[in-house]
Amino acid sequence: MNTLTLDYNGLVLHASREAWFNATEIAEYHGKRLDVFFKMKRTQQYIQAVAKQKGLIPCNPSDLNPTNQWELNPFDPAAYPDLIRARRGRYGGTWLHPDLMLCFARFISLEFEIWCDQTIKALLIDGKD
User: Contacts by 102-106 with C-beta closer than 8 Å and gap 24+?
Assistant: First the structure.
């Protein structure tokens, strides 16, 4: 995978050239859990709204995991593969679509949210890689 690296307080963050980002490494650095992020009503509403805006139809969770379908929550992040992806190996973890960055940053911390805003601004204004 061709990744970009950004530095946040000494943590090297990885993003794809399409701006997908490794949410696992960010959450772990901040002592946060992704399952908590995905269980939040606001997160679920945000993901569903982004999916609707993009015309994405969630996958049927039973198609993804037919043997354990009774264990799935009503909201299953895996039902949104166009927005949420799991990767193994180098840079493994849960990767989120760039449209979820600010929602995720709000979950992480106020400081991280501000850093994201400033980084996006720098990329737009200065054209930095």
Answer: 103/42, 103/43, 103/46, 103/47, 104/21, 104/23, 104/26, 104/37
